[in-house]
Amino acid sequence: MMDKDQKLYEITYLISLAYSEEEAQAFQQSLKNEVKSLGGLIDDEGGILKRRLSYPIKKMPEAYLASFRFLLASEKILGLETKLAVPQVLRFLVVHTKRQPIRAARAPRIGKIIPERPVLEYNIKSAPLPDGQAAANIEEIDKKLEEILGK
């Protein structure tokens, strides 16, 4: 059961490549066991990744990057930090964090949505043409188009 004075922390640290990946994972497991022995709970297991560093730390261009989240009373953090003061850890950072709320995915907004406009229908009433005159007009229009297009 969780104490009310426990807070959520995240720990991130770099382990030297002088140690194997199995040794790095064993070190991470020992840190998790230390958190549990101090009365804490592991919130997120995290993982270990091999990363190229932006700048060399202790003459190392690469290191294993490891992190995990846990719940622990704030007065017990110092005991955990002393466990990190070993030669295999190049750097470490322990931060108090807050749980991120789960957000519902939203559809991307592409542009302004314009409502559909009603189609206006015009009813033009004209005097009916004789059948022969309508056909003649269409033939004349076809001839004019052929002249314009050069066919």
Automatic annotation (TrEMBL):
CDD domains: bS6 (cd00473). GO terms for molecular function: rRNA binding; structural constituent of ribosome. Signal peptide: none annotated. Pfam families: Ribosomal_S6 (PF01250). GO terms for biological process: translation. InterPro entries: Ribosomal_bS6, Ribosomal_bS6_sf, Ribosomal_S6_plastid/chlpt, Transl_elong_EF1B/ribsomal_bS6. This is Small ribosomal subunit protein bS6. It comes from Candidatus Giovannonibacteria bacterium GW2011_GWA2_44_26. The lineage of its organism: Bacteria, Candidatus Giovannoniibacteriota.
